[in-house]
Amino acid sequence: MSRRWLFADQLGPHFLDDRRQPVLLIESKAVFRRRVHHRQKAHLILSALRHRAAELGDQARFLRTETYAEALRKVREPLEVRHPTSRRALEFVRRRDGVTVLPPRGYLTSLEDFADWADDRRGALRMEAFYRFARVHHGVLMQGDEPVGGRWSLDTENRQPPPKQADRLDVPAPPMPKEDDIDAEVRADLDRWEREGIRFVGRDGPRRFPATAKEAKSRLRHFLRHRLAMFGPYEDAMLAGDPWMAHSLLSSSFNLGLLDPMEAIRGAEQAYRKQGAPLPSVEGFVRQILGWRDFVWHLYWYFDAGWQRSNALAARRSVPRWWTELDADAVDARCLSDVLADVRDHGWVHHIPRLMVLGNYALQRGWRPTELGAFFHTSFVDGYEWVMTANVVGMSQYADLGRMTTKPYVSGGVYINRMSDYCGGCRYDPKKRLGEDACPFTAGYWAFLARNRDRIPGNARMARAMKQMERLSDLDAVVAQEKQRGNDPP
Ligand code: FAD
Ligand code: SF4
User: What is the CATH number of domain 3-102?
Assistant: First the structure.
């Protein structure tokens, strides 16, 4: 039996076909030397890898080296490895003698089935169409040939603003893992690495994300029992006092390979069929995993490698240091300051702060999409290159002019005001675009449209906004004001 080489994002039991198969695990320090990671992300990766090595005991050969190549020089037997999750890693394993590359695990639709589906489509690829295909293909939430409940998406029943007067959602908090001796050892090693000159961003803190398959399953069970019902309605809402809302906090567990996504999908379906969980929440959660997560994974491989470097809106400004250093205290705008502080303190915020606060702000300022992708990749506990390309370059920065989305995700402060409790306590006014108290998101929105009026002229979904922009009597003043604001923290 060949030895199975498991990358640090292939750590769950579903990455082994035979429970007794010999395993190779490699911890490479160079990964953390090459790029500045969030301290809690580095902790999570090392903790998960070392916990897996401890679970496997003598079954695993665990090598801690500077680089992968150095580790592989010590291994003289044939290896097999599941398809890695980045182009660079795939090339690396393919170039090596004696290494067999097996199909990927940890995603639901196979590369071949996705390619067949995508090859058959004319025009742009859309998640909604892929999601329908995947629901039928995998038989998820189906009643015969029809979706349960009669509609494929129940999103109109979700997406509510946060409950009025509430500081936090009325749901049990997600259970946090208990740190152990392995975490203590990781923390001591990272402290030492910092003294040796390896730099991290963000604050250290108790480990909040699962490092073992057992911890991930336990978080999933708790979510399905206690939090799923509230997931749908408040999926898009933000509250300053509640960073977690009713989200599952499972992305890092899926992405480390600790949890099989099908287990989460079947668990959610069972919660609907057997425990009466509300269908809009169940369908919404299933869509995130079977739809969005798989779609994003497949587009990374299906589109050409150059997609990652798209910059059709000619965004040329550098991402500023106060942003990459997560300097929340330098920022007055309450929404942005709070979200940056959450990233600094947890290495995680939910989808809407990523898309409609961080991504929206960057899009309005014209920051380089590749730099922004690198920021998300290294500053979030769940960040990986395959996730970045679609979510940052395609969805959030519209740098490919809509290969996967129908319009840019850009909005003014009015959206943030509706979906959060941020604006009440802010020195800016979400309705104002000009003057001392002009909301940087509202002003930035109009300045973005003005700057890109010739780059996105043909987009029907933007036509109304463009017309409105052309009619603004103070547009030139707003553009001048935003030019002056430049890259300074708002
Ligand atoms: P939930 O809200 O509970 O959703 C359930 C699961 O659905 C998630 O765990 C995740 O696995 C999956 N999912 C939902 N949407 C997406 C999506 N668009 N892409 C991929 N998976 C999705 N997700 C990452 O896993 N890693 C990232 O680095 C990442 N960066 C992002 C950057 C930007 C700018 C944007 C807009 C989105 C990004 N996402 C990323 C997607 C999404 O925001 C996170 O997966 C989600 O917020 C993680 O929290 P959760 O586990 O509580 O998710
Ligand atoms: Fe954010 Fe503008 Fe609201 Fe302030 S007023 S919290 S900057 S959206």
Answer: 3.40.50.620
Ligand nearest to the CA of 438: 2
Q: Which atom of ligand 2 is nearest to the CA of 427?
A: 4
Average pLDDT per consecutive 10 residues, the chain (490 residues; last block may be shorter):
95 94 96 96 98 97 96 94 97 94 97 95 89 98 96 93 94 96 98 97 97 98 98 97 97 98 98 96 98 97 94 96 98 98 98 98 97 96 96 95 91 97 96 97 97 85 92 96 94
Distance from residue 386's CA to the centre of ligand 1 (Å)? 12
Q: What pTM, to 2 d.p., does this model score?
A: 0.97
Q: What is the CATH number of domain 306-485?
A: 1.10.579.10
Q: Which ligand sits closest to the CA of 419?
A: 2
- Distance between Cα 149 and ligand 2 center (Å): 38
CATH no. for 111-178+192-198+212-302: 1.25.40.80
Give the alpha-carbon dihedral of 349, 327, 416, 130, to 10 degrees. -40
Whole-number Cα distances in Å, 170 to 220, 245, 419: 19, 9, 17
Torsion of CA 435, 438, 440, 445, to 10 degrees: -90
